[in-house]
Amino acid sequence: xxxxxxxxxxxxxxxxxxxxxxxxxxxxxxxxxxxxxxxxxxxxxxxxxxxxxxxxxxxxxxxxxxxxxxxxxxxxxxxxxxxxxxxxxxxxxxxxxxxxxxxxxxxxxxxxxxxxxxxxxxxxxxxxxxxxxxxxxxxxxxxxxxxxxxxxxxxxxxxxxxxxxxxxxxxxxxxxxxxxxxxxxxxxxxxxxxxxxxxxxxxxxxxxxxxxxxxxxxxxxxxxxxxxxxxxxxxxxxxxxxxxxxxxxxxxxxxxxxxxxxxxxxxxxxxxxxxxxxxxxxxxxxxxxxxxxxxxxxxxxxxxxxxxxxxxxxxxxxxxxxxxxxxxxxxxxxxxxxxxxxxxxxxxxxxxxxxxxxxxxxxxxxxxxxxxxxxxxxxxxxxxxxxxxxxxxxxxxxxxxxxxxxxxxxxxxxxxxxxxxxxxxxxxxxxxxxxxxxxxxxxxxxxxxxxxxxxxxxxxxxxxxxxxxxxxxxxxxxxxxxxxxxxxxxxxxxxxxxxxxxxxxxxxxxxxxxxxxxxxxxxxxxxxxxxxxxxxxxxxxxxxxxxxxxxxxxxxxxxxxxxxxxxxxxxxxxxxxxxxxxxxxxxxxxxxxxxxxxxxxxxxxxxxxxxxxxxxxxxxxxxxxxxxxxx
Length: 631
Prior knowledge:
Elements: H1 16-25, H2 32-42, E1 47-50, H3 57-73, E2 85-88, H4 92-105, E3 115-117, H5 124-132, E4 137-140, H6 142-150, E5 162-165, H7 168-171, H8 177-184, E6 192-197, H9 202-211, E7 216-218, E8 231-237, H10 241-253, E9 261-265, H11 268-280, E10 286-288, H12 294-305, E11 311-315, E12 358-361, H13 368-375, E13 385-391, H14 396-405, E14 416-417, H15 429-438, H16 441-461, H17 463-468, H18 470-474, E15 517-518, H19 534-537, H20 547-558, H21 565-574, E16 595-596, H22 605-610, E17 625-626, E18 629-630
Parallel strand pairs: 1-6, 1-7, 2-4, 2-5, 3-4, 5-6, 8-13, 8-14, 9-11, 9-12, 10-11, 12-13
Antiparallel strand pairs: 15-16, 17-18
């Protein structure tokens, strides 16, 4: 939200090309952090800025950074091309987001200012040609930047003028402390430093002493999270683990939760378990975790922002440091290996997920900072949002800590109880139990292996292909069903009798047409007969039949005394397997193929024979089957 008395961007002394880019981005007025930080940064001061997530911190340091570079380019004396600015980020996902934002701000001065991305998961040798061109700005994680400095493919000692540490509260918690200390040895003695953070923690104070020199603290008078009028925070105290899955199923299947949502869990196993659970109900979702390749993770985030996916199941893992005196335990054979996890993964921290309507904490965050970063993915800028937290009895301590820290001025908790009647959704409980039984530990393990293999294939093997065919990359999807568990088709639809009475007419569950498998018709027994099902063909087998013809045919097949001529014709067609194809009588066009399976008869018997059956609810009437033959 813009500051009430703050001057606009046009009064900050910014270059006209930057003002034009700001207008293109739709930034009408600076936010609170931008109004205070930009003038101070333009004066060359070191800054320690704290602002809640989604408040525009990237623009707060991006505009002064670009303005400083444009001022150097416009100087009368020639300035040698070199790396002048370094932006350190804690994760690859955030790094790519920062690169994209800086390039958008430099859209009208792209020839003068070049931004290099070192966050991509490629070899150092592949990034060396980019650094040989000496870009003006380099964005990367501390580990990757230090690797290039050690390999002498990047030099900063005589050229760096501005250092930015974005999401500084995470740089040390992600284990980059030693990398930052080593990296500082490669920097000049005098440079400007900007430290941006969403929270002030002991780690941030340690980083402040390490990097900044006589800094100015910028802390706008705003809460850590948006106000209750913009961000609604709810908590549901669940009695059992089953209650969590039941409530989530009701929210999504009954369409009580509208819009796109992020679902946060605590571990990798629960990430895939929840994804497979949603697959049982026909709800596609993406799994986002540290085991996936960085290129796949960034592609998922990009497609989510484009509106291709509605739900993302993400992990927000915070691996505690293992004490030195504790010996590492020997893992049993076949156990999941953690060596594939990316230490530079951080999907809940600083990533700008666009148009997120709700954040669901399926597991209570372990710390207050984690809760702030999770919930901060919604209600960004001036958009509204909802946060819903599921809490078990054993998670009450962590929940109480969050409530006490984020309590309002009067001491009331910002997390309001989510009011609903459990009895209203009890009808869905047995379906949730069936789905949970299907999602076994073995199914979760197979799902993890299968998706990682698929994503590695998409990420590495097809990299060159996608570079030559970028349009095909846009249609690459990451929410395809894994199906290691037995999927029960009946769970996809919510019958009317399971919808709570108070929601009938309001809730709109995902309803899909039932697809009946085609029975081998009378000619299917012959050589070359059709055995393709309607489901595999991807179409309704009765779609080309008029409704009246469907009803009369159903009535005809349900009564053996209605007209024996047509069945006799079918029998003669099936009893001559050696006849020439041209001699075989064709099926009358008004008769659809007989469905196969356990179909219920609607209005059978003599009543069906005397009066044609009409389709109900858009589903064609079924026929009576005995022994695979129509009666």
